[in-house]
Amino acid sequence: MRDAVTSLIRNYDITGRYLDRNAIDSLKSYFATGMARIQAAALITSNAAGIVRQAGLQLFDENPELIRPGGNAYTTRRYAACLRDMDYYLRYASYALVAADTDVLDERVLEGLRETYNSLGVPSGPTVRGIQIMKDIVKAEAAAAGIADTSFLDQPFDYMSRELGENDL
Q1: Residues 128 and 88 in one domain
Q2: How many CB atoms lie within 10 A of CB 152?
Q3: Radius of gyration of the chain (CA)
Q4: DSSP assignment, residue 74?
Q5: 16, 24, 100, 167: which one has the fewest Cβ atoms less than 10 Å from its Cβ?
Q6: What is the pLDDT at residue 168?
Q7: One domain for residues 73 and 136
Q8: CA 23, CA 111: separation in Å to the nearest integer?
Q9: Total count of domains within the chain
Q10: Is 10 annotated as a binding residue?
């Protein structure tokens, strides 16, 4: 797993260049948001169960067919698996937030997911919607906790949504 700093240095090292103004500006931006990233990760950690529960309720309220007979979250076992997966996405989003890098999402979440979901017949639309609902909840809670600029919170959630949405699961 890489973070914003190691990724930047790696890219400059591969090309044999010194850090230029763009690199220095990227590092300044990363460190300027560091405390907010840590606060957001702590907020997610302390409220993970509630975030997942609230997102699940909203998702199933918007898409009740998912929990009806024949739906992908029908039966207690499938419902629990859906919430488990949402928790998984949230946990890895918190890692990516701290790292300011989506590398961990590729390595630990997205690689192999297409094949797994295809084999299980899991549609991508509700998955993407669940991730976006969690993003909205996290951003609202972060703002309520006093994190002024929550725009950095979009990155991991939008990345997973984009990757899952572009790939026909």
Answers
A1: yes
A2: 17
A3: 18
A4: -
A5: 16
A6: 45
A7: yes
A8: 29
A9: 2
A10: no
Residues 125 and 159 in one domain: yes
What pLDDT sits at residue 29? 92
Please say whether the beta carbons of 156 and 116 come within 8 A: no
pTM of the model: 0.91
Count Cβ atoms below 10 Å from residue 162 Cβ, excluding itself.
12
Residue 82, marked binder = yes
CA atoms within 13 A on the CB side of 137: 23
Record the tokens describing residue 58, joined without a space: 């909203």
How much of the chain exceeds pLDDT 90, in percent?
A: 86
Q: Which residue has the tokens 């600029």?
A: 149
Question: For residues 156 and 110, what is the distance between their CA atoms, to the nearest angstrom?
Answer: 12
Give the model's pLDDT for residue 113: 83
Q: Which residue numbers in the chain have pLDDT < 50?
A: 168-169
Cα dihedral sign, 114-116-117-120 = positive
Going by the DSSP 8-state scheme, the letter that residue 33 receives in this structure is T
CB atoms within 10 A of CB 13: 10
If DSSP states are collapsed to H, E and C, what string results for 124-149? HHHHHHHHHHHHHHHHHHHHHCCCCC
Q: What is the pLDDT of residue 166?
A: 61
Do 79 and 15 share a structural domain?
no
